[in-house]
Design goal:
Length: about 90
């Protein structure tokens, strides 16, 4: 099942739209984030997992792939965490 949401990232004095796509499959439980994400975005896996569990939700026990599109835009900062959590 694929889920999409829209957000934006800062680019100088403007913004660029970003589509966040999430797909879950059977397999070993893990989360992969792809699409030119920096280290802060990669660390969002732990922040999102902790936030969902502490809010009383269950974290999916599936193989989850998060795609940050378009891939040519460099994505930085933790402000994408909420949009990523929304597709889980």
């Amino acid at each position: 099942m694929t889920i999409h949401t829209q957000t934006a990232v800062l680019d100088g004095y403007g913004v660029k739209p970003v589509t966040i796509e999430g797909d879950s499959n059977r397999g070993l439980p893990r989360v992969e984030i792809i699409g030119l994400a920096n280290k802060i975005i990669e660390e969002s896996r732990s922040r999102i997992r902790s936030a969902l569990i502490n809010s009383g939700f269950t974290f999916p026990q599936e193989h989850i792939i998060i795609n940050l599109a378009p891939a040519e835009i460099h994505k930085t900062g933790p402000h994408l965490d909420l949009a990523i959590a929304a597709v889980l």
